[in-house]
Amino acid sequence: MAKSAGTVKEIVAAGAFPPGLIFRRLCPMIARSQKDTEQPGTMRAIIIGAGRGQRLMPTTENAPKCFAEIRGKRILDWTVEALKAGGVDDICFVGGYRMDSVEREYPHFTFRHNPEWERNNILVSLMYAEDLMDRPFITTYSDILFTRTIVSDLIASPADIALGLDTDWREHYRPRSQHPPHDAEKAIARNGVVERVYRTIPYDDATSEFIGVAKFSRRGGELLREHYHARRREFWDKPYREAALFQKAYLIHLFQDMIEQGVPFGHADTHGHYREIDTQQDMDLAQKGWAPPEVRA
User: Fold this and answer.
1) pLDDT digit string (tens) for 22-70?
2) What pLDDT does 294 receive?
3) DSSP letter string, the chain
4) Could you tell me the CA-to-CA distances from 266 to 28, 67, 160, 193, 209 in Å, in that order?
5) Hey, which CATH number is domain 41-291, 3.40.50.12780, 3.30.465.10, 3.90.550.10, 3.30.200.20?
């Protein structure tokens, strides 16, 4: 049986190869190894929670939208539990409206302030945490309920950018008379690739809905920033896709733009284990019907 070549330290000590040559040969392998092992324990989450949530009044009269309670627990607490159980070890919160309440109740978060929250939207809000995109991260809206499984599945995805999709989205919208399907961030995904993510996708053509949770590897984060700044320079204070101004754009506007530019988007799916809380009706429905599979068990 052939004898093992030994560790790098042993090889250098034996004088078999110059240390510099070994370092140069190993560097690309180390870089690949680091990318391939972006596992739970190195994942950050960025929660986008700057807006007020006017359609949830009077619940948001004196509190941020993510403080609304579903089955005796804040939406934000459901979010944190799913993120941590799914493999996230560090949480950033991008705040605006009543951000002081979140800072007081969750001092362990890292915070980024969006002072222009009344004049911008989710896309620009996310980029207030751009300095924290130096490692793999999950982004999530702050007004949704989801499970640890979708988080862990997104983290495990080999794609540099992966979207969380609900394949049972039509059932989710059936009782939502105050938030009809044309408002859904619909998607078409085939063979593991997201082909489109757009509100105007015809109802019958959509295979799923983007739930507001996405994963970015280091490279995925670089691509997001590159495309954001290119479009920001071109469209700031101008209409951008369906948004009246770039500042009012949604995440899916940039995602679809990137897809059209040839950036591949993967996905991880959930079948109905997701709820959006946008109206009082949504709250009432969730009070009766929300429970993650792990809680039901």
Assistant:
1) 333 333 332 333 343 344 448 999 999 998 877 777 777 788 999 999 9
2) 64
3) -PPP---HHHHHHHTSS-HHHHHHHHHHHHHHHHHHT--TTSEEEEEEE-S--GGGTTTTSSS-GGG-EETTEEHHHHHHHHHHHHTEEEEEEEE-TTHHHHHHH-TTSEEEE-TTTTT--HHHHHGGGGGG-SS-EEEEESSEE--HHHHHHHHH--SSEEEEEETTHHHHHTT-TTS-GGGS-EEEEETTEEEEE-TTS-TTT--EEEEEEEEE-HHHHHHHHHHHHHHHHHHTTS-BTTBSSGGG--HHHHHHHHHHTT---EEEEESS--EE--SHHHHHHHHHH---HHHH-
4) 25, 31, 8, 5, 14
5) 3.90.550.10
Q: Are 148 and 268 in contact (CB under 8 A)?
A: no
CA–CA dist 239, 244 (Å, integer): 5
Residue 237 structure tokens: 């204070």
Q: Of the candidates 57, 70, 134, which has an alpha carbon nearest to the alpha carbon of residue 97?
A: 57
Question: Under a CB-based contact definition with an 8 Å cutoff, are residues 288 and 161 in contact?
Answer: no
Of all residues in the chain, what percent carry a pLDDT higher than 90? 75
Listed as own residue / partner, the contacts of 174-183 with beta carbons closer than 8 Å and 24 or more positions apart are 175/281, 175/285, 176/279, 176/281, 176/282, 176/285, 177/281, 178/55, 178/278, 178/279, 178/280, 178/281, 178/282, 179/276, 179/278, 179/279, 179/281, 179/282
- Write down the pLDDT at residue 24: 35
pLDDT < 50: residue spans in the chain: 1-41, 296-297
* pTM, two decimal places: 0.84
